[in-house]
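ok, trying the design again with the full structure, not the truncated one.
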Protein backbone atom coordinates (compact mmCIF):
# COMPACT_ATOMS: atom_id res chain seq x y z
CA UNK A 1 0.00 0.00 0.00
CA UNK A 2 0.98 3.65 -0.19
CA UNK A 3 2.35 5.27 2.95
CA UNK A 4 -0.65 7.63 2.89
CA UNK A 5 -2.95 4.58 3.13
CA UNK A 6 -0.82 3.21 5.96
CA UNK A 7 -1.15 6.53 7.79
CA UNK A 8 -4.93 6.34 7.50
CA UNK A 9 -4.92 2.77 8.83
CA UNK A 10 -2.75 3.84 11.76
CA UNK A 11 -5.18 6.64 12.61
CA UNK A 12 -8.11 4.22 12.43
CA UNK A 13 -6.17 1.88 14.69
CA UNK A 14 -5.88 4.70 17.26
CA UNK A 15 -9.67 5.01 17.32
CA UNK A 16 -9.75 8.36 15.51
CA UNK A 17 -13.31 9.14 14.43
CA UNK A 18 -12.79 12.69 13.08
CA UNK A 19 -10.02 14.66 11.46
CA UNK A 20 -10.29 18.44 11.27
CA UNK A 21 -8.38 20.08 8.47
CA UNK A 22 -7.82 21.47 5.00
CA UNK A 23 -6.50 19.85 1.80
CA UNK A 24 -3.40 21.02 -0.01
CA UNK A 25 -1.05 19.98 -2.78
CA UNK A 26 1.40 18.28 -0.43
CA UNK A 27 -1.25 16.12 1.29
CA UNK A 28 -3.04 15.00 -1.91
CA UNK A 29 -2.23 11.33 -1.29
CA UNK A 30 -3.55 11.48 2.26
CA UNK A 31 -6.76 13.21 1.18
CA UNK A 32 -7.35 10.53 -1.46
CA UNK A 33 -6.75 7.73 1.05
CA UNK A 34 -9.31 9.28 3.41
CA UNK A 35 -12.04 8.69 0.83
CA UNK A 36 -11.82 4.96 1.61
CA UNK A 37 -11.88 5.42 5.39
CA UNK A 38 -14.85 5.50 7.78
CA UNK A 39 -13.22 8.44 9.55
CA UNK A 40 -15.13 11.69 9.19
CA UNK A 41 -13.03 14.43 7.63
CA UNK A 42 -14.36 17.79 8.82
CA UNK A 43 -13.40 20.27 6.11
CA UNK A 44 -12.59 23.56 7.84
CA UNK A 45 -12.20 27.05 6.44
CA UNK A 46 -8.95 27.92 8.21
CA UNK A 47 -6.25 25.76 9.77
CA UNK A 48 -6.46 27.66 13.06
CA UNK A 49 -10.11 26.67 13.31
CA UNK A 50 -9.17 23.05 12.61
CA UNK A 51 -6.55 23.07 15.38
CA UNK A 52 -8.99 24.62 17.86
CA UNK A 53 -11.57 21.96 16.99
CA UNK A 54 -9.02 19.21 17.61
CA UNK A 55 -7.97 20.98 20.81
CA UNK A 56 -11.48 21.04 22.30
CA UNK A 57 -12.21 17.53 21.01
CA UNK A 58 -9.19 16.32 22.96
CA UNK A 59 -10.19 18.19 26.09
CA UNK A 60 -13.75 16.86 26.06
CA UNK A 61 -12.86 13.24 25.31
CA UNK A 62 -9.40 12.69 26.77
CA UNK A 63 -8.45 11.17 23.40
CA UNK A 64 -6.17 13.01 21.00
CA UNK A 65 -7.96 15.31 18.58
CA UNK A 66 -6.44 15.27 15.09
CA UNK A 67 -5.89 18.20 12.74
CA UNK A 68 -4.37 18.14 9.25
CA UNK A 69 -2.83 20.80 7.06
CA UNK A 70 -0.55 21.20 4.09
CA UNK A 71 2.97 22.66 4.34
CA UNK A 72 4.11 26.30 4.66
CA UNK A 73 1.25 28.72 5.33
CA UNK A 74 -1.16 25.89 6.08
CA UNK A 75 1.15 24.59 8.79
CA UNK A 76 1.89 28.03 10.25
CA UNK A 77 -1.85 28.63 10.52
CA UNK A 78 -2.08 25.59 12.82
CA UNK A 79 0.40 26.99 15.31
CA UNK A 80 -1.92 28.97 17.60
CA UNK A 81 -4.35 26.09 18.11
CA UNK A 82 -1.54 23.58 18.60
CA UNK A 83 0.15 25.84 21.17
CA UNK A 84 -3.19 26.29 22.93
CA UNK A 85 -3.68 22.53 23.25
CA UNK A 86 -0.13 22.07 24.51
CA UNK A 87 -0.31 24.72 27.23
CA UNK A 88 -3.90 23.83 28.16
CA UNK A 89 -2.86 20.15 28.43
CA UNK A 90 -5.33 18.88 25.83
CA UNK A 91 -4.22 15.81 23.80
CA UNK A 92 -3.81 16.69 20.12
CA UNK A 93 -1.95 15.27 17.12
CA UNK A 94 -1.23 17.67 14.25
CA UNK A 95 -0.26 16.21 10.85
CA UNK A 96 1.34 18.44 8.23
CA UNK A 97 2.08 17.78 4.60
CA UNK A 98 5.59 18.72 3.60
CA UNK A 99 7.81 19.28 0.59
CA UNK A 100 9.48 16.18 -0.75
CA UNK A 101 12.77 15.10 0.80
CA UNK A 102 14.41 15.66 -2.59
CA UNK A 103 14.07 19.45 -2.32
CA UNK A 104 14.67 20.13 1.38
CA UNK A 105 18.39 20.77 0.93
CA UNK A 106 17.79 24.02 -0.97
CA UNK A 107 15.59 27.10 -1.11
CA UNK A 108 12.24 25.75 -2.26
CA UNK A 109 8.64 26.85 -2.75
CA UNK A 110 6.69 27.05 0.56
CA UNK A 111 9.28 24.97 2.38
CA UNK A 112 9.87 25.63 6.08
CA UNK A 113 11.55 23.39 8.63
CA UNK A 114 8.31 22.47 10.40
CA UNK A 115 9.98 20.24 12.96
CA UNK A 116 11.93 23.24 14.25
CA UNK A 117 8.82 25.42 14.03
CA UNK A 118 6.67 23.08 16.13
CA UNK A 119 9.40 22.09 18.58
CA UNK A 120 8.60 24.61 21.36
CA UNK A 121 4.85 24.00 21.22
CA UNK A 122 4.72 20.20 21.25
CA UNK A 123 5.62 17.28 23.49
CA UNK A 124 6.77 15.13 20.55
CA UNK A 125 7.58 16.20 17.04
CA UNK A 126 8.92 14.10 14.15
CA UNK A 127 9.34 14.06 10.41
CA UNK A 128 8.72 10.81 8.55
CA UNK A 129 11.91 10.21 6.54
CA UNK A 130 11.18 6.56 5.79
CA UNK A 131 7.60 5.53 5.15
CA UNK A 132 8.13 2.20 6.98
CA UNK A 133 8.49 4.09 10.27
CA UNK A 134 4.95 5.50 10.14
CA UNK A 135 3.43 2.95 12.56
CA UNK A 136 6.04 3.79 15.20
CA UNK A 137 5.76 7.55 14.67
CA UNK A 138 1.96 7.56 14.83
CA UNK A 139 1.82 5.25 17.87
CA UNK A 140 4.35 7.37 19.75
CA UNK A 141 2.54 10.62 18.90
CA UNK A 142 -0.76 9.36 20.27
CA UNK A 143 0.85 7.78 23.32
CA UNK A 144 2.77 10.93 24.25
CA UNK A 145 -0.19 13.23 23.53
CA UNK A 146 -2.36 11.39 26.05
CA UNK A 147 0.23 10.75 28.78
CA UNK A 148 0.01 13.13 31.77
CA UNK A 149 0.36 15.94 31.44
CA UNK A 150 -1.24 15.65 28.01
CA UNK A 151 -0.48 18.01 25.16
CA UNK A 152 0.22 18.39 21.46
CA UNK A 153 2.32 16.23 19.14
CA UNK A 154 3.26 16.83 15.51
CA UNK A 155 3.92 14.53 12.54
CA UNK A 156 5.46 16.00 9.38
CA UNK A 157 4.92 13.84 6.26
CA UNK A 158 6.89 14.74 3.09
CA UNK A 159 4.87 14.29 -0.08
CA UNK A 160 7.30 11.85 -1.69
CA UNK A 161 7.18 9.61 1.39
CA UNK A 162 3.37 9.83 1.44
CA UNK A 163 3.29 8.50 -2.12
CA UNK A 164 5.89 5.76 -1.48
CA UNK A 165 4.86 2.11 -1.56
CA UNK A 166 5.26 0.30 1.76
CA UNK A 167 5.48 -3.45 2.24
CA UNK A 168 4.95 -5.48 5.41
CA UNK A 169 4.08 -2.49 7.63
CA UNK A 170 1.01 -2.57 9.87
CA UNK A 171 -0.30 -0.38 12.71
CA UNK A 172 1.10 -1.16 16.15
CA UNK A 173 -1.02 -2.38 19.04
CA UNK A 174 -2.27 0.58 21.09
CA UNK A 175 -0.81 0.74 24.58
CA UNK A 176 -1.10 3.49 27.15
CA UNK A 177 0.81 3.56 30.44
CA UNK A 178 -1.20 3.17 33.63
CA UNK A 179 -0.90 5.91 36.22
CA UNK A 180 0.59 4.28 39.33
CA UNK A 181 -1.09 4.44 42.72
CA UNK A 182 0.55 6.70 45.32
CA UNK A 183 2.90 5.16 47.85
CA UNK A 184 1.78 4.34 51.42
CA UNK A 185 4.64 6.46 52.77
CA UNK A 186 3.42 9.59 51.00
CA UNK A 187 -0.17 8.94 52.07
CA UNK A 188 0.90 8.68 55.71
CA UNK A 189 2.98 11.84 55.50
CA UNK A 190 0.03 13.70 53.95
CA UNK A 191 -2.33 12.43 56.66
CA UNK A 192 0.06 13.75 59.33
CA UNK A 193 -0.07 17.22 57.75
CA UNK A 194 -3.87 17.10 57.54
CA UNK A 195 -4.09 16.20 61.23
CA UNK A 196 -2.21 19.38 62.09
CA UNK A 197 -4.15 21.66 59.73
CA UNK A 198 -6.51 24.14 61.40
CA UNK A 199 -8.01 25.79 58.30
CA UNK A 200 -7.39 23.58 55.25
CA UNK A 201 -8.61 24.49 51.77
CA UNK A 202 -8.63 22.50 48.52
CA UNK A 203 -7.50 24.05 45.22
CA UNK A 204 -8.74 21.84 42.37
CA UNK A 205 -7.23 22.11 38.91
CA UNK A 206 -8.00 20.72 35.48
CA UNK A 207 -6.09 17.53 36.31
CA UNK A 208 -9.13 16.49 38.36
CA UNK A 209 -11.24 16.54 35.20
CA UNK A 210 -8.54 14.95 33.02
CA UNK A 211 -8.18 12.18 35.61
CA UNK A 212 -11.94 11.61 35.85
CA UNK A 213 -11.61 12.23 39.60
CA UNK A 214 -14.47 14.69 40.21
CA UNK A 215 -16.60 12.20 42.16
CA UNK A 216 -13.62 11.24 44.32
CA UNK A 217 -12.89 14.93 44.97
CA UNK A 218 -16.45 15.52 46.15
CA UNK A 219 -16.30 12.50 48.50
CA UNK A 220 -12.93 13.62 49.86
CA UNK A 221 -14.15 17.16 50.53
CA UNK A 222 -17.36 15.97 52.18
CA UNK A 223 -15.64 13.33 54.32
CA UNK A 224 -13.05 15.80 55.62
CA UNK A 225 -15.31 18.88 55.61
CA UNK A 226 -12.85 20.95 53.55
CA UNK A 227 -14.01 23.73 51.19
CA UNK A 228 -13.04 23.59 47.51
CA UNK A 229 -11.92 26.40 45.22
CA UNK A 230 -11.14 25.57 41.61
CA UNK A 231 -9.28 27.12 38.71
CA UNK A 232 -11.02 28.44 35.60
CA UNK A 233 -10.31 25.22 33.69
CA UNK A 234 -11.59 23.05 36.53
CA UNK A 235 -15.10 24.45 36.60
CA UNK A 236 -17.47 21.59 37.35
CA UNK A 237 -14.79 19.58 39.20
CA UNK A 238 -17.12 20.02 42.15
CA UNK A 239 -20.73 21.09 41.51
CA UNK A 240 -21.47 24.70 42.30
CA UNK A 241 -24.47 23.42 44.30
CA UNK A 242 -22.19 21.66 46.79
CA UNK A 243 -22.15 23.45 50.17
CA UNK A 244 -18.35 23.10 50.07
CA UNK A 245 -17.88 24.81 46.70
CA UNK A 246 -16.32 28.27 46.83
CA UNK A 247 -16.29 28.72 43.07
CA UNK A 248 -13.46 29.83 40.79
CA UNK A 249 -10.20 31.43 41.72
CA UNK A 250 -7.96 33.07 39.16
CA UNK A 251 -8.72 36.77 38.80
CA UNK A 252 -5.64 38.94 39.04
CA UNK A 253 -7.30 40.71 41.96
CA UNK A 254 -8.09 39.99 45.59
CA UNK A 255 -11.54 38.49 45.10
CA UNK A 256 -13.82 37.24 47.86
CA UNK A 257 -12.58 33.70 47.40
CA UNK A 258 -9.06 34.99 48.01
CA UNK A 259 -10.13 35.63 51.60
CA UNK A 260 -10.40 31.88 51.98
CA UNK A 261 -6.77 31.48 50.91
CA UNK A 262 -5.78 34.26 53.33
CA UNK A 263 -7.34 32.25 56.15
CA UNK A 264 -6.03 28.83 55.09
CA UNK A 265 -2.95 27.37 56.75
CA UNK A 266 -2.88 24.28 54.52
CA UNK A 267 -3.73 24.16 50.81
CA UNK A 268 -4.39 20.78 49.22
CA UNK A 269 -3.78 21.19 45.50
CA UNK A 270 -5.47 18.47 43.44
CA UNK A 271 -4.66 18.18 39.73
CA UNK A 272 -3.43 21.78 39.82
CA UNK A 273 -1.65 23.24 36.77
CA UNK A 274 0.48 26.27 37.66
CA UNK A 275 0.07 27.62 34.11
CA UNK A 276 -3.46 28.71 35.02
CA UNK A 277 -2.98 30.60 38.26
CA UNK A 278 0.47 31.33 39.67
CA UNK A 279 1.10 30.19 43.27
CA UNK A 280 2.35 33.67 44.10
CA UNK A 281 -1.25 34.85 43.79
CA UNK A 282 -2.54 32.60 46.57
CA UNK A 283 0.65 31.99 48.57
CA UNK A 284 2.34 35.41 48.43
CA UNK A 285 4.16 34.99 51.75
CA UNK A 286 5.25 31.39 51.08
CA UNK A 287 3.72 30.38 54.40
CA UNK A 288 1.11 27.81 53.34
CA UNK A 289 1.71 24.13 53.94
CA UNK A 290 1.03 22.57 50.54
CA UNK A 291 -0.14 19.02 49.85
CA UNK A 292 0.36 18.27 46.16
CA UNK A 293 -2.00 15.55 44.87
CA UNK A 294 -1.51 14.88 41.17
CA UNK A 295 -0.55 12.31 38.57
CA UNK A 296 2.68 14.28 37.97
CA UNK A 297 5.34 15.62 40.35
CA UNK A 298 5.12 19.25 41.40
CA UNK A 299 6.54 22.02 39.23
CA UNK A 300 9.35 24.05 40.84
CA UNK A 301 8.25 27.49 41.98
CA UNK A 302 9.45 29.58 44.92
CA UNK A 303 5.83 29.96 46.06
CA UNK A 304 5.04 26.27 45.53
CA UNK A 305 7.43 24.34 47.76
CA UNK A 306 5.32 21.36 48.79
CA UNK A 307 5.23 19.80 52.23
CA UNK A 308 4.21 16.44 50.77
CA UNK A 309 3.73 15.28 47.19
CA UNK A 310 1.20 12.50 46.71
CA UNK A 311 1.93 11.44 43.14
CA UNK A 312 -0.24 8.86 41.41
CA UNK A 313 -3.79 8.27 40.31
CA UNK A 314 -5.74 11.19 41.74
CA UNK A 315 -8.98 9.38 42.58
CA UNK A 316 -7.12 6.61 44.43
CA UNK A 317 -5.02 9.14 46.33
CA UNK A 318 -8.11 11.06 47.46
CA UNK A 319 -9.93 7.92 48.54
CA UNK A 320 -6.98 6.69 50.59
CA UNK A 321 -6.51 10.08 52.22
CA UNK A 322 -10.22 10.31 53.05
CA UNK A 323 -10.07 6.94 54.79
CA UNK A 324 -7.29 7.99 57.17
CA UNK A 325 -7.41 11.75 57.72
CA UNK A 326 -9.64 13.47 60.31
CA UNK A 327 -12.44 15.84 59.40
CA UNK A 328 -11.81 19.57 59.74
CA UNK A 329 -13.79 21.43 62.38
CA UNK A 330 -13.39 24.81 60.66
CA UNK A 331 -16.63 26.48 59.56
CA UNK A 332 -15.46 29.86 58.24
CA UNK A 333 -16.18 28.79 54.67
CA UNK A 334 -19.95 28.75 55.29
CA UNK A 335 -20.09 32.53 55.72
CA UNK A 336 -17.67 33.02 52.84
CA UNK A 337 -19.80 30.87 50.55
CA UNK A 338 -22.88 32.91 51.49
CA UNK A 339 -21.09 36.09 50.44
CA UNK A 340 -20.00 34.50 47.15
CA UNK A 341 -23.53 33.26 46.44
CA UNK A 342 -24.87 36.77 47.05
CA UNK A 343 -22.32 38.06 44.55
CA UNK A 344 -23.43 35.56 41.92
CA UNK A 345 -27.08 36.43 42.41
CA UNK A 346 -26.54 40.19 42.10
CA UNK A 347 -28.05 41.72 38.94
CA UNK A 348 -29.44 38.33 37.83
CA UNK A 349 -32.66 40.05 36.78
CA UNK A 350 -31.32 43.54 36.10
CA UNK A 351 -33.26 45.32 33.32
CA UNK A 352 -30.49 47.76 32.39
CA UNK A 353 -29.42 47.99 28.75
CA UNK A 354 -26.85 47.30 27.38
CA UNK A 355 -27.12 44.09 29.34
CA UNK A 356 -24.97 43.64 32.42
CA UNK A 357 -22.63 40.64 32.17
CA UNK A 358 -24.11 39.25 35.40
CA UNK A 359 -27.58 39.19 33.79
CA UNK A 360 -26.22 37.52 30.65
CA UNK A 361 -24.65 34.72 32.69
CA UNK A 362 -27.81 34.25 34.72
CA UNK A 363 -29.86 33.88 31.54
CA UNK A 364 -27.32 31.43 30.09
CA UNK A 365 -27.52 29.28 33.21
CA UNK A 366 -31.32 29.27 33.05
CA UNK A 367 -31.23 28.23 29.38
CA UNK A 368 -28.78 25.34 29.79
CA UNK A 369 -29.19 21.99 31.48
CA UNK A 370 -26.61 20.45 33.85
CA UNK A 371 -24.78 18.57 31.04
CA UNK A 372 -25.00 21.28 28.37
CA UNK A 373 -21.73 22.93 27.36
CA UNK A 374 -20.44 26.51 27.28
CA UNK A 375 -17.24 27.11 25.29
CA UNK A 376 -15.82 30.48 26.28
CA UNK A 377 -13.65 32.65 24.11
CA UNK A 378 -10.97 34.88 25.63
CA UNK A 379 -11.68 38.46 26.66
CA UNK A 380 -13.50 40.37 29.39
CA UNK A 381 -16.46 38.00 29.15
CA UNK A 382 -14.13 35.08 29.99
CA UNK A 383 -13.40 36.59 33.40
CA UNK A 384 -17.09 37.05 34.09
CA UNK A 385 -17.86 33.49 32.98
CA UNK A 386 -15.01 32.07 35.05
CA UNK A 387 -16.03 34.04 38.11
CA UNK A 388 -19.80 33.78 37.93
CA UNK A 389 -21.07 30.96 35.70
CA UNK A 390 -22.19 28.11 37.99
CA UNK A 391 -20.97 24.84 36.45
CA UNK A 392 -22.61 21.66 37.67
CA UNK A 393 -20.52 18.92 36.00
CA UNK A 394 -17.02 18.44 34.56
CA UNK A 395 -16.37 19.58 30.99
CA UNK A 396 -19.52 21.71 30.81
CA UNK A 397 -17.66 25.04 30.83
CA UNK A 398 -14.61 25.03 28.55
CA UNK A 399 -12.19 27.90 29.13
CA UNK A 400 -8.70 28.26 27.66
CA UNK A 401 -6.60 29.62 30.50
CA UNK A 402 -3.16 28.19 29.83
CA UNK A 403 -2.39 29.69 26.45
CA UNK A 404 -5.66 31.69 26.53
CA UNK A 405 -6.07 32.10 22.78
CA UNK A 406 -8.75 34.33 21.30
CA UNK A 407 -10.86 32.80 18.55
CA UNK A 408 -11.38 29.40 20.18
CA UNK A 409 -15.09 29.61 21.02
CA UNK A 410 -16.80 29.02 17.66
CA UNK A 411 -14.45 26.24 16.45
CA UNK A 412 -14.51 24.69 19.92
CA UNK A 413 -18.31 24.75 19.96
CA UNK A 414 -18.33 22.96 16.59
CA UNK A 415 -16.20 20.18 18.05
CA UNK A 416 -18.52 19.97 21.07
CA UNK A 417 -21.63 19.90 18.88
CA UNK A 418 -20.22 17.08 16.73
CA UNK A 419 -19.41 15.07 19.86
CA UNK A 420 -22.67 15.80 21.68
CA UNK A 421 -25.48 16.50 19.19
CA UNK A 422 -28.00 15.80 21.97
CA UNK A 423 -26.80 18.67 24.18
CA UNK A 424 -27.19 22.42 23.98
CA UNK A 425 -23.84 23.94 22.97
CA UNK A 426 -23.12 27.64 23.48
CA UNK A 427 -20.11 29.54 22.15
CA UNK A 428 -19.77 32.53 24.48
CA UNK A 429 -17.61 35.04 22.64
CA UNK A 430 -16.74 38.68 22.35
CA UNK A 431 -17.20 40.54 19.10
CA UNK A 432 -13.42 40.51 18.56
CA UNK A 433 -12.99 36.80 19.20
CA UNK A 434 -15.99 35.89 17.05
CA UNK A 435 -14.56 37.67 14.02
CA UNK A 436 -11.20 35.90 14.41
CA UNK A 437 -12.70 32.60 13.25
CA UNK A 438 -16.03 33.72 11.81
CA UNK A 439 -15.39 31.65 8.67
CA UNK A 440 -16.06 28.45 10.62
CA UNK A 441 -19.74 29.42 10.80
CA UNK A 442 -19.94 27.99 7.29
CA UNK A 443 -18.40 24.76 8.61
CA UNK A 444 -21.02 24.64 11.36
CA UNK A 445 -23.85 25.12 8.86
CA UNK A 446 -22.45 22.51 6.44
CA UNK A 447 -21.91 19.98 9.24
CA UNK A 448 -25.42 20.54 10.61
CA UNK A 449 -24.16 21.59 14.04
CA UNK A 450 -26.81 22.67 16.53
CA UNK A 451 -25.00 25.42 18.37
CA UNK A 452 -25.53 29.00 19.43
CA UNK A 453 -22.87 31.73 19.30
CA UNK A 454 -23.68 34.45 21.83
CA UNK A 455 -21.71 37.62 21.09
CA UNK A 456 -20.91 39.93 24.03
CA UNK A 457 -20.84 43.05 21.84
CA UNK A 458 -18.99 46.09 23.18
CA UNK A 459 -17.32 47.38 19.99
CA UNK A 460 -13.78 46.95 21.25
CA UNK A 461 -11.13 44.87 22.96
CA UNK A 462 -12.96 45.01 26.27
CA UNK A 463 -10.43 43.24 28.48
CA UNK A 464 -7.56 45.44 27.31
CA UNK A 465 -9.77 48.52 27.71
CA UNK A 466 -10.44 47.37 31.29
CA UNK A 467 -6.73 46.93 32.05
CA UNK A 468 -5.76 50.22 30.42
CA UNK A 469 -8.33 52.19 32.41
CA UNK A 470 -7.27 50.41 35.57
CA UNK A 471 -3.57 51.16 35.11
CA UNK A 472 -3.55 54.45 33.18
CA UNK A 473 -7.05 55.90 33.56
CA UNK A 474 -7.72 55.96 29.81
CA UNK A 475 -8.01 53.52 26.90
CA UNK A 476 -5.61 53.33 23.96
CA UNK A 477 -6.53 52.04 20.47
CA UNK A 478 -9.07 49.42 21.51
CA UNK A 479 -12.29 50.55 19.80
CA UNK A 480 -13.42 49.19 16.42
CA UNK A 481 -16.49 48.87 14.23
CA UNK A 482 -18.56 45.73 13.69
CA UNK A 483 -20.66 44.32 10.86
CA UNK A 484 -24.37 43.69 11.21
CA UNK A 485 -24.04 40.32 12.96
CA UNK A 486 -27.64 39.30 12.24
CA UNK A 487 -27.29 39.85 8.49
CA UNK A 488 -23.84 38.27 8.55
CA UNK A 489 -25.16 35.12 10.27
CA UNK A 490 -28.04 34.81 7.81
CA UNK A 491 -25.67 35.16 4.86
CA UNK A 492 -24.01 31.94 6.05
CA UNK A 493 -27.36 30.17 6.38
CA UNK A 494 -27.45 30.50 10.18
CA UNK A 495 -30.15 32.14 12.26
CA UNK A 496 -29.37 35.70 13.33
CA UNK A 497 -30.97 37.37 16.37
CA UNK A 498 -30.38 40.70 18.09
CA UNK A 499 -31.11 41.57 21.71
CA UNK A 500 -32.59 45.05 22.14
CA UNK A 501 -33.60 44.84 25.81
CA UNK A 502 -32.35 42.86 28.81
CA UNK A 503 -35.48 40.73 29.07
CA UNK A 504 -35.13 39.67 25.41
CA UNK A 505 -32.01 37.56 25.95
CA UNK A 506 -33.71 34.60 27.63
CA UNK A 507 -36.34 34.22 24.87
CA UNK A 508 -33.66 34.73 22.21
CA UNK A 509 -31.64 31.85 23.65
CA UNK A 510 -34.69 29.58 23.59
CA UNK A 511 -35.48 30.54 19.99
CA UNK A 512 -31.87 29.97 18.95
CA UNK A 513 -31.60 26.53 20.57
CA UNK A 514 -34.91 25.47 19.03
CA UNK A 515 -33.82 26.50 15.52
CA UNK A 516 -32.17 23.18 14.64
CA UNK A 517 -29.26 24.97 12.93
CA UNK A 518 -26.43 27.25 13.97
CA UNK A 519 -27.58 30.55 15.43
CA UNK A 520 -25.86 33.83 16.31
CA UNK A 521 -27.17 36.22 18.96
CA UNK A 522 -25.86 39.79 19.03
CA UNK A 523 -26.11 41.01 22.63
CA UNK A 524 -24.80 44.47 23.59
CA UNK A 525 -22.97 44.21 26.94
CA UNK A 526 -22.45 46.86 29.59
CA UNK A 527 -18.77 46.63 30.44
CA UNK A 528 -18.95 49.58 32.77
CA UNK A 529 -19.35 46.71 35.24
CA UNK A 530 -15.67 45.86 34.74
CA UNK A 531 -14.32 48.89 36.57
CA UNK A 532 -17.10 48.66 39.13
CA UNK A 533 -15.91 45.15 39.91
CA UNK A 534 -12.31 46.35 40.17
CA UNK A 535 -13.41 49.08 42.57
CA UNK A 536 -15.40 46.62 44.65
CA UNK A 537 -12.57 44.10 44.87
CA UNK A 538 -10.26 46.88 46.01
CA UNK A 539 -12.46 47.49 49.06
CA UNK A 540 -13.59 44.01 50.11
CA UNK A 541 -15.14 43.83 53.54
CA UNK A 542 -15.85 40.19 54.28
CA UNK A 543 -15.50 39.14 57.91
CA UNK A 544 -14.53 35.50 58.43
Amino acid sequence: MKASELLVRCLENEGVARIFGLPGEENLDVMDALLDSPMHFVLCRHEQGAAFMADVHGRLTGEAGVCLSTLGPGATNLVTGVADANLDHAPLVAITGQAGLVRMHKESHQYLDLVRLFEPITKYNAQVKRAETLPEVVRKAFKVARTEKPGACHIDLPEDEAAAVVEDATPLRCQQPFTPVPSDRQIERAVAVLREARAPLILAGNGVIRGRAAAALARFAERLNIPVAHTFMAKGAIPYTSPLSLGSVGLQAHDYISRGFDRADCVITVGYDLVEYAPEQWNPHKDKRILHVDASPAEVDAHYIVEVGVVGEIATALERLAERAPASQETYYASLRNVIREQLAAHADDLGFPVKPQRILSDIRRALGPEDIVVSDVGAHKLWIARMYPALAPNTCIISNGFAAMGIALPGAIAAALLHPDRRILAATGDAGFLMNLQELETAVREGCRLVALIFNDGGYGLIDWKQRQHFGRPSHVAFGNPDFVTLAESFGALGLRVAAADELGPALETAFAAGRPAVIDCPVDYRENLRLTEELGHITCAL
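Keeping the full-length input from now on. Residues 72-87 form the longest helix (16 residues).
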